[in-house]
Amino acid sequence: MLFNSPTFLLFLVVVFGLYYAFPRGRMMILALANAAFYAYAGVGYFLLFGAIVASVYFISKGLQGPRGKLALGLGLAVVLGNLLFFKYSMFLLENIESMLGMTFSLQGTAFDDRMIALPIGISFYSFQLIAYLVDVHRGQLKPSRSLFEFWVFISLFAHSAAGPILRGNDFIPQLRNIRSILFRAPRVKLGMAFILLGLFKKVVIVEQIAPYVNDYFAKAQTLSGVESWIASYLFAFQIYFDFSAYSEMAVGIGFLLGLRLDLNFKTPYLSANPAEFWRRWHITLSQWIRDYIFIPLGGSRVANWRIYANLIAAMTISGIWHGAAWTFVIWGFYHGLLSAGHRMYAKGIARLGWKQIHNNGLYKVFSIFVFFHLTVVGWVFFRANSWSDALYLLRKMTMLDGIQFSKQHLLLLAVIAGLYLLHIMESIVVSRFQRWSLAWQLYVPSIIRGAVYAVIAVILLILLMKGESSGFIYFQF
Questions:
Q1: Of these residues, 159, 322, 335, 423, which one is catalytic?
Q2: Would you list the domain boundaries of the chain?
Q3: Is 322 a catalytic residue?
């Protein structure tokens, strides 16, 4: 059930109405809504998801006992086994076949087309279950009181298909206080604003640039250098606006229900270095990688060479999480190298006594420009349909074969510049949102505000009704 579809909007209206009409039954309403959301995508995968959640819940009861390590190992085996089978089994099989120089026959099996459909949100709920198991085992989180509560926590329809990743310490207490949540008009308005912002990004921006991205990458090995850069720039904005749209809609749904979900993006293309980028891009995943991979590997408490190795390992694992292909592995490894390289650079600057250079405005602008382009280069690996396509595009992006512009190229470059300007404007609006929101409420008559809301809503509904909307990119992860 796509967030950018009339079906989901109707579903959300029904859930919202029931939620405030029957406050004592809110947990049951959310439990049933979550079940309906997953069952809509496929009853078989919904039953599998329910079985995984139930298994982890009962296993978690023994995490703090004398056999806690055994219970942790069993819980991780259940979660990772499910993830590995559905997401990586075909990838592993193909690589084994390549090494052995032979092909295994799958004819007559359920996988004779060598494809396994990915259950909705499998990566996100797997990370959430792993965090829960580890936190309970460490004594940082008490086990959930009931399977019912645990199901609502893990499966909340607002976030589970593509994040943000929720933590038990933050979210379970909110569920335990759910009956006392009151209807607050300002909070509901804020929720609707986030939902409309997400719909605007998805329907007005992403849906318009996605055809160009798909067309360019489908014919990757025929592109010129200019076209290769255009394709990469457009995908950089497609994936940002697409993923942030979903995340902001999830936050908005949380506000409608009186629940707090974390923002996942903070204008990441204004980052001057890798550390800043990962504090702004897919924030809850970055925090998860830090807490459950980087720090257990030793984090920053070990020798410098180990820190660099830990950074590269953590980011490579992030790449593997994103997809079962070598291009994703290289994308993660590339960002690991950028992170390690920036740490080396920062240490060098500090030794030379040049730390004050970071306060220079021109240096900041130059750093943002350079790192944005390094990020765009990385997106080539993420989006390319094959390793050979990625290498071809990168070779063309060196511009060694000359630079030639057509009218369409200039038009698309103008669109890209406009998208970056929109990104900057988004940052300004976020930083001044409270002040501007107050001024909007105080100085703009309610009839004008209502008319503006109505026009925006009608335009978005018309666009939604035009036809089948495309899925969110991160649904495939």
A1: 322
A2: 6-100+118-183, 186-465
A3: yes
